[in-house]
Automatic annotation (TrEMBL):
Domain Bacterial bifunctional deaminase-reductase C-terminal: start-end pairs: 111-184
Official protein name in the record: Dihydrofolate reductase
Pfam families: RibD_C
Coiled-coil ranges (or none): none
A biological process from GO: riboflavin biosynthetic process
InterPro entries, alphabetized: DHFR-like_dom_sf (IPR024072), RibDG_C (IPR002734)
GO MF annotations, alphabetized: 5-amino-6-(5-phosphoribosylamino)uracil reductase activity
Domain of life of the source: Bacteria
Organism: Geodermatophilus obscurus
Length: 193
């Protein structure tokens, strides 16, 4: 079974978006280099960021996100991002009207059901959980194996928190991956068990 990874780009003060759901400069690092990150060539990063990010993306089988992220991205128009096979959406609402039933998106009620569905779909590939409220709920449920973050040198002051509304202490091990790119620091922490 694949590891469950909570992930996002994040400000140094722990926010994944501002109060208006805008990421500001959090994704500028994806345009800060000269190495194409995918086939489109639209994203260009430093060599260090390429090696780190491409290796990570290639391991992901399923992404879990909340309905809020799904709606903000217009459901990626029915095509999972970054070459991921499936997206599991945590929601209390039905799929959008007119949604293509063949699109590899699965709508479930609750984070435990989302992780179970993702594990079924991912096999031994990674399960990525979008940071924020849903990521925080998965963390609080004890279902996260590791935390990955792309720390960007900006202070937001307020906004949408990386760990959502988690209010309990959760210990992580020392980072076992620390990679410096252009305008980003890639970190990986395993959860203490």
């Amino acid at each position: 079974m694949g590891n469950v990874v909570m992930y996002s780009s994040v400000s140094v003060d722990g926010f994944i978006a501002d109060e208006n759901d805008q990421p500001g400069p959090l994704f500028d690092w994806l345009l800060s280099g000269d190495v194409p990150l995918d086939e489109s060539g639209a994203l260009k990063v430093s060599q260090a960021s390429y090696e780190h990010t491409r290796a990570y993306w290639d391991q992901i089988g399923v992404t879990i996100c909340g309905r809020h992220v799904f709606d903000l991205t217009d459901g990626w128009h029915g095509k999972p991002p970054s070459g991921i096979d499936h997206v599991v959406v945590v929601t209390h609402r039905p799929q959008p009207e007119g949604w293509d039933p063949e699109a590899p998106f699965h709508f479930v009620d609750g984070v435990e059901a989302a992780v179970a569905k993702a594990q079924e779909l991912a096999g031994d590939r990674l399960i990525e959980v979008a940071a924020g409220e849903v990521g925080g709920q998965v963390l609080a449920a004890g279902l996260v194996d590791e935390v990955r973050m792309d720390v960007v040198p900006v202070v937001f002051g307020s906004g949408k928190r990386f760990f959502g509304s988690v209010h309990a202490q959760h210990l992580l091990e020392d980072p076992d991956v620390v990679t410096q790119g252009n305008r980003v620091l890639h970190l990986r922490y395993r959860m203490c068990r």
